[in-house]
Design brief:
Layout: H1 13-30, H2 54-72, H3 79-99, H4 104-112, H5 124-135, H6 138-141, H7 149-166, H8 186-189, H9 195-214, H10 224-245, H11 266-289, H12 293-299, H13 303-316
Helix pairs in contact: 2-3, 2-4, 2-5, 3-7, 5-7, 7-13, 9-10, 9-11, 11-13
Length: 328
């Protein structure tokens, strides 16, 4: 300050700079700016809110791409088809994360983290084992919200079905999460929204009576009639289980069903079987779409296994495998 000059009554440069910085920070928070999780701390600026179950979903993207790459290296069984399905699954989940606000570099890192470090030569058996291992992550994925829950549940059902297709001698789809059907949670295991799909399953059971009658009278285990009898027994169990869970609800099952087309030959019977199972899979997918936050929690205990069985039965009768059974 020059000699003799009057003392300054305005703000100092340090005060002005501090005020400008504070104003900038408040402006950032007012505009909804959020720090990413690895950014340095700044006062008053909150970090980005993560997507529910984000870490598990990012891991799911990587593990799914790893399965796609392993399946693409095989030519046996359903492996080539599974390669495309797994790629679709990974891209779908990755896109959902991006739409949820997860930074591109975070999603890209998950995609690049696909584990392909195994030194063992790939085989359908090793791929089946990898499919089953991927399902173990379902416990962490229960943190996802209801907007992504049906998608992930469907994906897990497909994965269990893929494991059984690749290695029929391996473990059959079993409870991913322990569930006691005799517990007091039975009503939650089969929420009221299951009523419409129960009706479809009941109709499917009636239609398979026609499939059995119109199939050639052969007794070999692999004959069309034997397979139709086995599917009929499976449908009986499914309808019984769902019906027990819906006791006390206003669910009326149809007394008779109408054939979707004339069935007068074994070929017609096989087509009816595929048509029926494809319809049941779609109905189950519609059920998943109705799950709310309350019914989503118990759904992790039964949906992957039930959907895997439905997908296997549908594929056995000629239905194309789906990346998200019932949803696509």
């Amino acid at each position: 300050m020059p000699a003799g000059a009057p003392p300054s009554t305005g703000p100092t440069r340090r005060v002005v700079t501090g005020a400008a910085l504070l104003g900038g920070i408040l402006g950032l928070t007012g505009c909804g700016v959020r720090l990413e999780e690895d950014a340095p701390e700044l006062p008053l600026v909150p970090r980005r809110a993560k997507v529910p179950g984000e870490a598990a979903l990012l891991a799911l993207v990587g593990s799914t791409l790893a399965l796609a790459r392993e399946a693409a290296s095989l030519t046996q069984e359903a492996a080539p088809t599974l390669a495309g399905l797994h790629t679709t699954q990974a891209l779908t989940v990755a896109d959902a994360l991006r739409r949820g606000g997860v930074p591109e570099r975070v999603v890209a890192a998950a995609e690049d983290a696909a584990d392909t470090s195994s030194t063992a030569p790939p085989s359908t058996t090793s791929l089946a084992a990898a499919e089953r291992r991927a399902v173990e992550a379902v416990r962490d994925l229960q943190a996802v919200d209801v907007t992504l829950g049906p998608t992930v549940l469907s994906l897990m059902g497909q994965r269990l079905a893929a494991a059984s297709l690749l290695d029929p001698t391996g473990p059959a789809p079993g409870s991913v999460i322990p569930f006691d059907p005799t517990s007091t949670n039975t009503s939650e295991h089969a929420p009221a929204t299951l009523g419409p799909v129960l009706e479809v399953a009941h109709s499917a059971r009636r239609l398979f009576d026609v499939v059995v009658v119109r199939s050639p009278k052969e007794s070999s285990p692999t004959s069309q009639r034997s397979r139709a009898v086995a599917t009929t027994a499976w449908l009986d169990r499914l309808v019984g289980r769902w019906g027990d869970g819906l006791q006390g609800t206003a669910t009326e099952l149809p007394v008779s069903v109408v054939l979707p087309f004339p069935v007068s030959s074994p070929e017609d019977a096989a087509r009816l079987a595929e048509h029926t199972m494809t319809g049941l899979r779609a109905a189950y997918g519609a059920h998943l779409a109705t799950l709310d936050a309350r019914s989503l929690a118990p759904a992790w205990a039964y949906v992957p296994d039930e959907l895997a069985d439905i997908e296997l039965q549908t594929h056995a009768w000629g239905g194309a495998l789906q990346a998200f059974p019932g949803l696509t």
